[in-house]
């Protein structure tokens, strides 16, 4: 029989405090002085005390409730995420984890901040948020942490809230990958590249654009990457701004959809007679992008596994609730490249 490690009673003796105080420190309850918390933590390190999180949660029947906050407007990739969240809710149920989602208008930062301020820490243990950057949202996210609600930045991060975990690919690297593919596919060293995004308020779009621009500027100084076109998820606006761009420029050689929903921009592009001569690259694998690759309407898709990002967010939130460090290697989201030939 293996040797039993130090118990909470051993820890109480080593720290010179009561069992009740040890319990309050281990469970981050109020009413404990900072010096007492330090004393208990130092004693735990000295005697090699390792808390059995599973046993502790079982003894007090702890349940976890995690909420994914997603954009109100979205297409097939959002549908993929919602399906994986529902799948995770069933898969994690045996671990006392409840997973749900809420779609809100993320383009109104004041409404988003108000929504976040009303989240009850007694109802939700943690949040995975997919919301564009703004000062209002940044402050609201910081206040969530102050109220004890764990937060994971989901696919789109807030650059001024670095104390929170991020789940998703390295977006600068994703954009640079798109730039590298565009460089390999282009046969001409002249012309213009159109960049489409739902919103450039999103940190993911900003970082992808930076990565893309750096690669193109380094390899094709004679190619101009046009200012980003923002659709805001509005089909009519997308039709108008893409049409205007093609009416104004006759030398377009590349078309890069920087955000996760590529269907509408690619369908609009396909209406133009010269579309087949333009290199087209998009993000995220969906039924549409798969079919577009097969039909030759897309040249490449840069993706991340939606099931992996959902499960990763949940594992990180649970680890933070249990005061554990997430396993970094397990939560590394890979950049995947899909062509017609490897679907």
Q: How would you explain this protein's 3D organization?
A:
By secondary structure, the chain is of the alpha/beta class. The chain folds into three domains: 8-51, Orthogonal Bundle (434 Repressor (Amino-terminal Domain)); 64-168 and 306-333, Response regulator (Rossmann fold, 3-Layer(aba) Sandwich), CATH 3.40.50; 171-303, Rossmann fold (3-Layer(aba) Sandwich), CATH 3.40.50. Helices cover 44% and strands 17% of the residues. The protein has helices at residues 8-15, 19-26, 34-47, 53-59, 76-91, 109-117, 135-146, 171-185, 203-219, 235-248, 263-269, 287-295, 306-321, and strands spanning 64-71, 97-104, 126-129, 150-154, 165-167, 191-197, 223-225, 229-230, 252-257, 279-283, 300-303, 336-338. Strands 6, 7, 8, 9, 10, 11 and 12 form a seven-stranded mixed sheet that branches. A five-stranded parallel sheet has the order 2-1-3-4-5, with helices on both faces. Helix 7 links the parallel strand 3 (126-129) and strand 4 (150-154). Helix 5 packs across helix 13 (306-321), helix 8 (171-185) packs parallel to helix 9 (203-219) and helix 10 packs parallel to helix 11. It is elongated. The chain starts with 7 loop residues before the first helix and ends in a 5-residue tail after the last strand. The relative contact order is 0.11. The model has no long low-confidence stretch (mean pLDDT 86).
How do you describe this structure in short?
The protein has 13 helices and 12 strands. The protein is of the alpha/beta class.
